[in-house]
Every structure is written in C-alpha cells, then in structure tokens.
Write a structure and sequence with these properties.
three-stranded mixed beta sheet, 55% helix, two-stranded parallel sheet, 326 residues, mainly alpha
C-alpha cells in the first residue's frame, strides 16, 4: 500500500508542476549529478544501477516532500487519501521517516524541494521548517522552538530533528585533567540528599546541577520518542564526527534508572511522562537504550555535571545530614 501511495503522491506533484513546464524527466536530470555524492552517504553498497538508484531517490524524495506539504496544509489533500483517513498511518510515518536505515541525503530532498516550489513559494517555508513542523505533530514542542530552526540543515531528516534538540551553548568540552565517572541511580542520589526537579528549557538535553538539585526538563516516553531516541543514539554511534549529545543523555538516564522505583520517582517529579507501558517497561527501555554504547565520558557535554554530582555525593556530610532527616 505504501509503495502505491508513493506513486500516487508523485503523480499529484507532477500534475502541479506541469504549469511550470516541468515533468518527471526534469526531476531525474536534477538528481543525476548528485548520484555519486548520494551513494557515498551510505555505509553499504547499494546494488542498483544508475537509473534505478536515481528513480528510487526521486520517488522516495518526492513522496516525503509531498507528504510534508499535505500534512502542513501547504497543498490540498484528497478526501479519500488513506494516509489521512486512517489515523495509524501518519503515526507510522512520524517514526518510519526517522529510522536510521530509511534516511535519504538531505541535499537530495532540498534539490527536489527547490525544484518543485510553485510561483510565490520562493519566500515561503523552508524545507527544514516544514520537516520540523511535520514531526512536531508527534513531539508537540512550542511553535516558537521550531521556528528558530528554519535555516537548520542536517545530513538527513534524522540528523535535522536531532540537531534541533542539541543546545547551542552545551558543546562538548576539552578533556579534563581528572577522569570523569558516571553517577549513581536515583535511589542512591536521594539518600545522599540530592533531589531531582523538572527544569525549564527548550530541549530535554539541557540538564543542570546546582545546590544539590539535578534539573531535567520533562521528556515524554511514548512509541515515537522511544524510536527517535534509539535512532539518534544509533546514528551517533555510527558517525565519529557527530556530536554525542543523545548518547550522553541516554547514559545519564541509564545511570539514574536502576529499577521501576527510580522511574516511579521520576514520574512523580514530572521529569518523565509515561505513555509507553508499565514503569518496569520504561526502566527496561532506558537500560537497553544505554546498553553497550561507546563514547568518551571525559569530553561529553555533561562531564561537568557528572563530576559535580559525584563530588556532592562523596561529601559524607551531605549523606549524614540526609539520613538524619529521612
């Protein structure tokens, strides 16, 4: 069914651009010079000849762009369009288009997007804007947060959405003189007098520690977010030049959560919202997310936080004081 819809969406796009004198051949010609650059973006050899590869890029790329435009109401959708009449299909695409294995080079999408702009759209929404607005139907971030990234570009859609969460003022530091260690779980931190509060920030990646309190913006764990987190971590693990913000955040969650009781506390503190399953299932997901991942903790964006929390934890005065008031 999905393949059938791809051809249907390509047909509706071609009908629209006919008034510009464009046809399918123009799409194929525009993508042809980008073939080798696009092939180099994939870790495995794609066993398609030139024509097959270019046709795949055009078909998939045009479908994605047309889907963004229809969902964003930039172009009209048909009343009998199954992608809109069946609620589960859009929810499927929110996840599926951000799977690492389904990525198309961003420059291919941008080439097709620019080629298919209609007169009067030149000063309209950018590709990054309509892409982020599309996925925001699953994330529900404030419009102001999304609008800041209208000029953002990624290597592909997953990277684009990932980068929209990476805070500009939380870069990865130079290596410290002393080694950094991971922190304890919620239950042990609480016994040391360390509290966790919901923080206020545009991104859940902005985690702070001050005066014995870890501040973490609320994150909703559901089918979409669980898939998005897993794919961001997988992407960061595959690319050495890529920042490791999601890998670091996954490690932080994995440190904090040892059992379902830790999840229970994070839910009570409004740091987690659970639309995923039982507290035990959330704990399992978090532990699997942080399992067997590789990164350099000494130069991660939370290395200072790990150091400060550990220093506070080791201060026996805080531990003794906390035990007396419990």
């Amino acid at each position: 069914m999905i393949e059938e819809q791809k051809w249907r969406y390509l047909g509706s796009l071609l009908n629209r651009v006919q008034s510009k004198g464009l046809g399918l051949e123009d799409f194929l010609k525009a993508v042809h010079p980008l073939e080798m650059k696009a092939r180099d973006c994939y870790s495995e050899v794609i066993h398609l000849d030139t024509n097959e590869f270019i046709e795949m890029m055009v078909l998939d790329g045009c479908f994605i762009i047309e889907l963004f435009r229809k969902v964003g109401k930039l172009v009209k959708s048909q009343p009998d369009d199954p992608l809109f009449s069946m609620a589960w299909i859009l929810a499927f695409f929110y996840r599926d288009l951000l799977r690492l294995e389904n990525q198309i080079p961003y420059f291919i999408l941008e080439c097709l997007f620019n080629l298919t702009k209609m007169p009067g759209e030149e000063s309209g929404s950018s590709l990054s804007s309509i892409a982020l607005e599309f996925f925001n139907n699953a994330m529900l971030r404030p419009d102001a947060d999304i609008s800041k990234y209208h000029d953002l570009q990624g290597k592909h859609l997953l990277d684009l959405v990932r980068m929209s969460f990476v805070p500009s003022d939380h870069g990865e530091p130079h290596r410290a003189k002393t080694p950094t260690y991971v922190i304890h779980c919620v239950s042990k931190l609480r016994r040391a007098g360390i509290r966790l509060n919901p923080g206020k920030a545009d991104s859940f990646l902005v985690v702070k520690f001050r005066r014995g309190v870890i501040e973490m913006p609320t994150i909703t764990i559901d089918d979409f977010m669980s898939s998005f987190l897993m794919n961001c971590v997988a992407y960061e693990q595959c690319h050495r030049s890529c920042s490791k913000h999601f890998t670091t955040y996954a490690t932080l969650l994995d440190c904090l959560v040892n059992t379902y009781k830790d999840v229970e506390y994070l839910l009570d503190r409004n740091i987690l919202e659970n639309y995923f399953g039982t507290d035990a299932e959330v704990a399992r997901f978090i532990n699997n997310l942080g399992k067997d991942i590789a990164f350099d903790i000494d130069i991660c964006y939370l290395s200072r936080l790990f150091d400060d929390v550990n220093q506070y934890y080791k201060n026996s005065w805080h531990v003794q004081w906390a035990s007396k008031i419990q």
